[in-house]
Here is the input.
Amino acid sequence: LEVPYGGTQVFTIAPDSGYEISSIKLGGKAQPIQSEIALHDVKKAATLAVTFKPLVGHILVTASAGKGGTIAPAGKVAVAKGGDTTFAIAAADGFRILDVKVNGKSVGAVSSYKLVDVQKAATIAASFTVLPAIPVSKVTGGTSSPAGKVLVPYGGQQVFAIEAMPGYTLRNLVVNGKKMPASDSYVFDNVTKNGS
Here is the structure.
């Protein structure tokens, strides 16, 4: 953080729910516990370090998400002993939830999970994978809609409309490397892997 020479900078310190401030150090020196600290007449570099700790009677749940999505809340979440907490899992565009593990055990590809009656430290980890894709090859004399690399929801269906341009006729379709009879449409059902 840059501060104008000789200027003032105010820092607000706010612990997350279930936490309290453990220590505040300015330039390596301990400071009184406070919710706000101001640096006046700043003329040289300084460091401000703040640490937090769970409130008494609270337990830490570590929540993490792999590439391709998020989990909320994330990080080290403090939960009152015996309390409940709910996590929301969401995949990013082009991804789907692959699995959610609680304390190392799979609970399935769920978009929400509630930990009930938390009595000890726990972990929840979400993993994601790319959606199956069907790339459509561009050819002379006709169009396919949609076109390009088409992402399909896992287990979903995708319909392609095929049309010959004026002066051309549709000879055949090639689906997953196999020749198919000419048709003005083709349907991929229960898509669970890449196709073409």
Q: What stands out?
A: The CA atoms of residues 12 and 36 lie 4 Å apart.
